[in-house]
């Protein structure tokens, strides 16, 4: 009888141990999955750029960007500015402004810096005015980071593939273009089109 009780006790312990290990493994996997950063492929006429988005650091900005991506908003837009950044996401090939949703909360104080190859939101002077336009930093643009007590430009990801494409775009010839009487400086002479933007992982 005593032997049976010992065997039963050992069996119960093994079962509890197995369940604990299984639960721990599932929790670890869930944590890993939830911490995964989305990756978006920006296919341009000069090559494809893949950006990893930091949803843990800039949740509002990443959600906003992904909403535009998933709706097909960026498909067929142009890169309209190339100087110390590559900026796009607002104009069609014939320079029509695409209608956007309201501006979002500025998340520039998230600890991320406007260093080379990072992707950030473009905006107007008002801190919470970013909508669809974004830019990729060609240099370490520290002047775009928030000053003490002020607002900067929110970094929400970084280029992980296609740095050579970024560099190639950064070297294109630019000029000032007049659009309905408004001058736009640093516009690529040869149009660069963002053919598609898709979530790839």
**Total count of strands:** 10
Sequence of secondary-structure elements? HEEHEEEEEHEEE
How far apart are the termini? 58 Å
Helix residue percentage: 25-40%
Strand content: 25-35%
Q: Remind me, CATH topology of the largest domain?
A: Cyclophilin
Unreliable segments of 5+ consecutive residues: 12-34
User: What gyration radius follows from the Cα positions, in whole Å?
Assistant: 24 Å
How many structurally independent domains? 2
CATH architecture assignment of the largest domain: Beta Barrel
CATH superfamily of the largest domain: Cyclophilin-like
Main sheet: strands, sense, barrel? 8 strands, antiparallel, barrel
Average pLDDT, rounded to a whole number, is: 88
* Global geometry: globular
Number of helices: 3
Strand order across the largest sheet:
1-2-7-5-6-4-3-10
Structural class, please? alpha+beta
State the name of the first-level CATH class of the largest domain.
Answer: Mainly Beta
How would you briefly describe this protein structure?
Residues 12-34 have low confidence and may be disordered. This protein folds into two domains: 1-34; 39-199, Beta Barrel (Cyclophilin). The strands form two sheets. An eight-stranded antiparallel barrel has the order 1-2-7-5-6-4-3-10. Strands 8-9 form a two-stranded antiparallel sheet.
Write a concise keyword list for the protein shown above.
Cyclophilin; 2 domains; eight-stranded antiparallel barrel; 201 residues; alpha+beta
């Amino acid at each position: 009888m005593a032997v049976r009780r010992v065997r039963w006790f050992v069996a119960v312990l093994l079962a509890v141990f197995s369940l604990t290990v299984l639960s721990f493994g599932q929790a670890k996997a869930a944590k890993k999955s939830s911490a995964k950063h989305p990756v978006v492929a920006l296919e341009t006429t000069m090559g494809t750029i893949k950006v990893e988005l930091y949803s843990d650091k800039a949740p509002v900005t990443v959600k906003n960007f992904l909403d535009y991506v998933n709706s097909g908003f960026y498909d067929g837009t142009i890169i309209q500015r190339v100087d110390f950044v590559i900026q796009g996401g607002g104009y069609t090939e014939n320079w029509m402004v695409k209608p956007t949703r309201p501006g979002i909360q500025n998340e520039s104080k998230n600890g991320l810096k406007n260093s080379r190859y990072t992707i950030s939101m473009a905006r107007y002077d008002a801190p919470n005015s970013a909508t669809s336009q974004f830019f990729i930093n060609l240099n370490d643009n520290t002047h775009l980071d928030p000053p003490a007590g002020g607002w900067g430009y929110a970094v929400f990801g970084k280029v992980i593939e296609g740095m050579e494409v970024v560099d190639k775009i950064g070297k294109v010839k630019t000029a000032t273009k007049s659009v309905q009487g408004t001058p736009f400086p640093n516009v690529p002479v040869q149009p660069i089109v963002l053919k598609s933007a898709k979530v790839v992982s």
